[in-house]
Each structure stands twice: as C-alpha cells, then as structure tokens.
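Figure 3 (text version): structure tokens given as input.
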C-alpha cells in the first residue's frame, strides 16, 4: 500500500491564520496550493468545523506535501496531538484523521484531512465553503 504524504487543511492550520501549530506545517511540508474537497462547514460557535459530504458541496483549503518522508510521521503526530486525537481512555476525540480525495487544479490527489468527529445536527451550515471568507464576513464591524 502506498503511503500518503499529502495533507489538506481548511481551518486554523491554514497559512493565513498564523496559528502556532502552523509551524509544524511550515517546517515539514511544502504548500502545493489552494485545493478543494467534498465536505461541508458548520458554525460550532467558538469555531467552524467540517465534515465529509457525498453531494456536490466542496470546501476550500490548502494542500501540502511532506518535504521529506522521514520527518512525516513525527510531524503528523504533532498535528494529531494539536487536533485532539490523543485522548484519555473513554474520551471521544473531537477530530479524526482520514484519507480523502482532494482536487488541486481539477486533479485528484489522495490526502490526509482532519474531519470533525461529532454531530453537526444543531449547527448552522456555512455555505461559503471557505472558512477565511466566512470569518472575514462574520467579523466585519
């Protein structure tokens, strides 16, 4: 089975957010460009979340490629920790890392992505498909 060294980020790990955890991405990955994946955003209140979708709904983010395969496992473990995948026994992680088909310049690439790991039933859908645009609109004075 071929290893996956691509990472798709759509929220706080995007370059424009200046999140401290972005340093792991900057150090270990190279930005390939803006890309999309089938999914939907929802407003959780304190921050937006994303879930996969099987319809024609896409979310925008950034696609990265690991700079070297040797550092990938360590870097992805740090990001798993940031995304809350490492929980105490009996606790449910807020996110899950899965493989997804991402499209960059209309070309499909299999990539890792972090999806929200809980119900979005009572949340409002964010129809823009782009967290950056949504937050800019939401935070306008």
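Below: residues designed for each position.
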């Amino acid at each position: 089975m071929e290893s996956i060294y691509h990472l798709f980020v759509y929220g706080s790990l995007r370059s424009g957010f200046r999140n401290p955890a972005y340093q792991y991405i900057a150090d270990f990955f190279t930005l390939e460009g803006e890309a999309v994946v089938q999914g939907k955003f929802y407003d959780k209140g304190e921050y937006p979340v994303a879930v996969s979708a099987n319809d024609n709904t896409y979310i925008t983010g950034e696609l990265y490629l690991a700079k070297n395969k040797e550092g990938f496992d360590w870097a992805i473990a740090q990001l798993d920790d940031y995304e809350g995948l490492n929980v105490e026994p009996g606790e449910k992680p807020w996110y899950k890392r899965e493989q997804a088909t991402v499209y960059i310049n209309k070309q499909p690439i299999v990539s890792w992505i972090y999806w929200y790991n809980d119900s979005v039933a009572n949340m409002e859908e964010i129809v823009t498909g782009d967290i950056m645009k949504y937050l800019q609109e939401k935070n306008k004075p």
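The radius of gyration is 15 Å.
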